[in-house]
TrEMBL record:
Sequence similarity: Belongs to the DegT/DnrJ/EryC1 family.
Enzyme Commission identifier(s): 2.6.1.92
Protein name: UDP-4-amino-4, 6-dideoxy-N-acetyl-beta-L-altrosamine transaminase
Cross-referenced SUPFAM superfamilies: PLP-dependent transferases
Active site (catalytic residues): 186
Bilayer-spanning residue ranges: none
Protein source organism: Psychrobacillus vulpis
Length: 387
């Protein structure tokens, strides 16, 4: 087989002249940060997902930290999330001195299993952070039922899921708070960036104040008023602000989000058609409760039918210049979490899945030839390692 000449990454941004002009316009204007471009980007994302409010942050991780603060997470509070996600989904709880409790995944959907959440609830449970892994919507009805029963706050980690839907509703409009990320591998990018959407005015105001040092200039919120210069720092916040430069890029990117998702869906269809009849691999689950936004395409290996390990197959694909990846190393296995006392063997579905998965390249700027190269490489490598 012919090996691709250039390396194909698993994901990357797509920028056009409109994006570049939007950024240049800000550079020529008078605001570089927290100006009109932030308001416009927040309005645009809120309108797209159908939420009342949106607060932009310097990155998705900062946005999650803000959400944990606004939810009132503190020492002694337990927050339940999935181990099969990026470290940031759990780290945000630790920033607030809370305790992370992992609930295992459903081996079919790879998303957190509501029944496992139920088993992990204690008197100290305060919130749930479900993650729409790869863009597949989690079982929100079951999660909200549990949250209602135990009076828990739900913060969706939708870093993979802008543009996804659950039972006809847009992700971002449903829970107490929803986080989006605008890192370059995500659906739309601002370089670094994140956002929380919410329908609560109270949470909205807390988030805005948290992102800027805990300071308010709103006289209605202040305890005193020394004069026109006066501001009040009322709690310990951070500088987690996004720049206008980034927000302008984000607004311009939002115009293309639907096209980007349509491209991803088309490539997923081609992948599925090519791999569906290969017993050595298992194609991703397709939710019947909603539409995935397809951030990642994860192929699961049926290792019983293969000679090599996942590592061997992964390396063989890399050698063919296919930029495969693994999403994710379960968080509880990371050395920092091991030191905190989380145990290997405690979340068996996530641990087993981790041994079997390979992420294939998927991004809107891929060409049909790129997709065909991936399919051919997978077929050749699987043929080579078939028992
Ligand atoms: C990317 C990502 C984050 C963090 O977003 P950043 O913008 O990179 O800080 C959090 N959770 C998940 C699942 C992610 O993929």
């Amino acid at each position: 087989m012919n090996i691709r000449e250039t390396f194909l990454p698993y994901g990357k941004q797509q920028l056009d002249d409109q994006d570049i002009e939007a950024v240049v316009d800000v550079l020529k204007g008078s605001f570089l940060t927290t100006g009109p471009a932030i308001d416009e980007f927040e309005r645009k994302v809120a309108a797209y997902v159908g939420a009342e409010y949106a607060v932009a942050f310097s990155n998705g991780t900062a946005a999650l930290h803000g959400a944990c603060f606004a939810a009132g997470i503190g020492e002694g509070d337990e927050v339940i999330t999935t181990p099969m996600t990026f470290a940031a989904s759990a780290n945000c709880v630790l920033y607030q001195n809370g305790t992370v409790v992992f609930a295992d995944i459903d081996p079919r959907t790879y998303n957190i299993d509501p029944e496992e959440i139920r088993k992990k609830i204690t008197i100290n449970t305060k919130a749930i952070i479900p993650v729409h892994f790869t863009g597949q919507p989690v079982d929100l009805d079951s999660i909200h039922k549990i949250a209602k029963e135990y009076n828990l706050i739900v913060i969706e980690d939708a870093a993979h899921a802008i543009g996804a839907t659950y039972k006809g509703r847009n992700i971002g409009s449903i829970s107490d708070m929803t986080m989006f990320s605008f890192h370059p591998v995500k659906h739309v990018t601002t370089g670094e960036g994140g956002m929380i959407t919410t329908n609560s005015k109270e949470l909205y105001e807390k988030l805005k104040q948290f992102r800027s040092h805990g300071i308010t200039r709103n006289s209605k919120q202040m305890l005193e008023n020394h004069g026109p210069w006066y501001y009040e720092m009322q709690f310990l916040g951070y500088n987690y602000r996004m720049t206008d430069i980034q927000a302008a890029l984000g607004s311009s990117q939002m115009d293309k989000l639907d096209t980007f998702i349509a491209k991803r869906k088309g490539f997923v269809k081609t992948y599925n058609q090519s791999f569906n009849n290969m017993p050595e691999v298992i194609v991703p689950h397709q939710s019947s409760d909603g539409e995935s936004s397809w951030h990642l395409y994860i192929l699961k290996l049926n290792l019983d039918l293969l000679k090599g390990t996942r590592k061997k197959i992964f390396e063989a694909l890399l050698q063919r210049n296919i930029g495969v990846n693994v999403h994710y190393i379960p968080i509880h296995l990371l050395p920092y979490y091991q030191e905190l006392g989380y145990k290997k063997g405690s979340l068996q579905n996530a641990e087993q899945l981790y041994e079997e998965i390979i992420t294939l390249p998927l991004f809107p700027a891929m060409t049909v030839k790129d997709v065909m190269d991936v399919i051919e490489a997978v077929k050749v490598v699987i043929e080579e390692y078939r028992k």
